[in-house]
Description:
- The chain contains seven helices and six strands.
- By secondary structure, the protein is an alpha/beta fold.
- The protein folds into two domains: about 30 residues; about 160 residues, 2-Layer Sandwich (Alpha-Beta Plaits).
- It has a six-stranded mixed sheet with strand order 1-3-4-2-5-6, sandwiched between helices.
- It is an enzyme of class 2 (transferase).
- Pfam families: GGDEF.
Amino acid sequence: MGLDKKLNKSELYIIKGMLSIYNNFSNLLAESQTDELTGLMNRKTFDESIVKLYQHFSDPMSQEGDQAPCTWLAIIDIDLFKHINDKYGHLYGDEILIHMARTLQQAFKPTDLLFRFGGEEFVVVLKDQTKQECMQSLENLRLAVERILVNEGEKLSVSIGATRFDHTVFHITLLDHADKALYFSKDNGRNQITFYEDMKARGLVEEEELESGDIDLF
């Protein structure tokens, strides 16, 4: 069939049907990978892609140190979000989550990975940044969130826990490191950023953990 030949009705019908099937499949795939409320990638997507994240973002041991660009994982939690839900209702809480997602998208690079983990908790993977650059990115977010006003003039804030990607520990341990840093932020006044590595240097966490090479889960 020449390129200049017009398609008949049957051929057009088949092509239209195939395009419809493709669009439906694409929509279903997108829905399974993203959070319905915020449009960010969801926890399921993070869990499914963590092995690929490790393969892509693992930092060579020679790159350890604050001055070397590497990859960071941060958990971000909206402070006192239950209070907002209880005082203004869940619909207003949803609006805050949507606004938070947009603020995250504006604060980080397009190459950074943003996830909603559920509830008021978000995760960001920042790549190719020194510790100082990562700190500045997270601080920019913290300040941007402070400018979000809740009803009656209340201000919003976030607590953040961050850690460097380390391919020598399990991904569950990596998340635990960021989570410990997050709760240190929350337990010490909220509205601040804590790095797990700083906690470790100050002797605030115990040495633990199996290394990822000890047991092969995948």
